Amino acid sequence: MATEPRFFCPSCKAAIDKPPQYQLLGDVARAGGDFILMGSSDAFQCPSCGFQILKQDIVSGKLDSPPGAPAKIRLSGQEIAGMIFLLGIAAFIIVRCAL
Ligand SMILES: [Zn+2]
After folding, report:
1. 68 C-alpha vs ligand 1 centroid, how far in Å?
2. Which of the four, 14, 21, 22, 41, has the lowest number of CB atoms within 10 Å?
3. What is the domain extent for residue 54?
4. How many separate domains does the chain show?
């Protein structure tokens, strides 16, 4: 699964594009490899509020979800059934248009 290309400032909750090297480090960390944090500074400055965000928090994916939001969205059985129903209708329409 691809790394989330954005992370959120823990101070002002701004969505910040994750620099490619952080994405790479995150992938390496997830794969269980050792990784070295690049750059001379230990923190990434938020372009919005200037908050010093720890590189480890960015790399580990800890800030990939907005602060306070659940890490994973849980869908109820009813919602999943509704999505399957909608996908079925979409497939039906596509087949009808293709004929
Ligand atoms: Zn900020």
Report:
1. 15
2. 41
3. 6-71
4. 1
